[in-house]
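User: I want to check something. If I give you two sequences, will you return the structure for each one separately, not as a complex?

Assistant: Yes, each is folded on its own. Here is the first sequence with its structure:
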Amino acid sequence: MIQNIISVINVNFIILVMIGSVAGLFVGAMPGLSVTMATALLVSVTFTWQTNNAIGLIMGVYTVGVYSGAVTAILLNIPGAPSSVATTLDGYPMASKGNALLALKTAAYHSFIGSIIGLLILAISAKPITKLALAFTPMDYFLLALFGLTTVGSLTSKNFTKGILSALLGVFISMIGVDPIMGTNRFTYGSVNLQRGISIIPALIGLFGFSEILYQVSLDLSKGEVLNITEKEISTQEILSHWFLSIRSSIIGAVVGALPGTGGPIAALLAYEHGKKTTKNPKVPFGEGAIEGIVASEAANNAVVGGAFIPMLTLAIPGDAVTAVILSAFYIHGLRPGPLLFSETPEMFSVILAGGFIGSIMILILGLTISPLLSRIVGIKKRHLIPIVSILCIIGAYSASTHIFDIWIMLAFGILGFIMRKRNFAIAPMVLGLVLGEIMDSNFRRAMSLISTSDNPIGDILLKPISLVLILLIIISVASNFIQFDKRKERI
């Protein structure tokens, strides 16, 4: 395997992966400019290129682009991608306390670890994990999404009930648009624009970015305009001391990534929940700047890169939106992803791995070299930073689909997020509901249509090993949330 990977590497390949990595850094760090969009553009540009070079450039963008979403999540509280939502929970509070550089370097190191582990899992166990993914029924996907929704307790440390209400509101909003099964309008109230549904990018920018602007404006800007950025030396040993959590989170990310239609947001939130429950006595509580929160989130969402390729390469089923675009690139170049890929063009598997490993190294190089520069952003006076961030929010919301209505969506969610913050409702659970709502809806209804012709509906749906495991996990998650809530209530 190692010899095959080395055989596809040459100077041109390395340079193109590096160029793609730099592009992925800036694209992923700009809210609204998604890695999926950049990959789609590259497919249209590179279709006449030599196949290895085209895939190498795309792998650089994909690998580093996933990491770079953490940059704005940490510095501006705006997730550069949905998979970076969990990073904002501790990354931005850490930056606000003057530890922006520590947060950025932590994200770089553990994104690197997550990417490497995800690719190793891809190389070693592509076929076994794919068989597991194939065994998932629509009901299993529904239960997996429902389990993700029960982790809402890890996203709100003050009021579990408000967290659940926030998540359910997100699920409701995700239902707006054309019904994917019946093709009828739902909650559109005659609006043609709402038939497209609520786009996740402008909603994210509004909830995290514009609501932060409104919140800061509501404060007295004359007090504490400049954040206290400390110049203390960053301990690499401290960052890497959480290696075991990073490995566990990476495994979670790779496995979740191998399940088509799930991807980074679910992986990061599940890993965050795991990190919160398994970390005993953190120096800083989760949600207030815990370094463990960044470790879990970034390791998991970067490990998804390797995991998402597993069903794409072996079954021609994309694991997420980016691999769906890469799948089209394979077809454009005359390749046939699926079981025949390994027998007809086995070198392409090595090209994917080589591009991913070089891109992972670029995460470390770019993350450690740009961090001292980017961390200075949080030192800009608020009265200067707020107009800049406002413009970025508008540009990001519009550029996601070049649709004016998305700007109004961003503004509406910004106002909603501001009101929720003032009323002590956590924002992250709503994002979780937005992400999981569509998965829950479509898969539950598919499952119900399947059991309509079954002689033993309960057995076919709920008495399968995967379903039983997921149901057990849901019960444990719900019970633990109520136990933690009761303990917090007693302390209060």
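And separately, the second sequence with its own structure:
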Amino acid sequence: MSEENNNSSTVQLNTKKLQLATFAAGCFWGVEAAFRRIEGVKSTAVGYTGGWFNNPTYRDVCTDKTGHAEAVQIQFDPNEVSYEDLLEVFWSIHNPTTKNRQGPDIGSQYRSMIAYHTTEQQLAAKKSKEDLQSSGKLNGRRIVTEIVPVSPFHKAEEYHQKYYQKRGGGSCYI
């Protein structure tokens, strides 16, 4: 058997490509740090999504007048980590029952939001939210997390990217 035939008959590659996921769960520094630790997450970027203001800066978003949430956009390999696994991390790293707030951080930029990229992500996000709500883990508190179609993602300033990695740690509410 030729080498070409041998290679094609013994190796079956999974050809799924990298996918995107976008989550907002409070201060994006801590959210990004949590997702960067997940095997299968290939890259992260912090930024702003869900608003109406074009090309917002951190200063703009902090006015609570642009409609944007601090968010993390994740590029992941679905062969290594599922979207459902990412949803589990999302729910575990913040309080999805507080509107426009995570700990001491208050404002709509700190809201809980899942911005889905596909119909499959939308369905998975809704199911995971329903499952968590009915689990009893929240002691009757209602989940206020928004599940919305992805809108333009504006990458935050460079000093915000991989903030904890650059500084050897830090603190954030989550």
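Because they were folded independently, the notes below concern the second chain alone. The first helix runs from residue 3 to 10. The chain has a mean pLDDT of 89.
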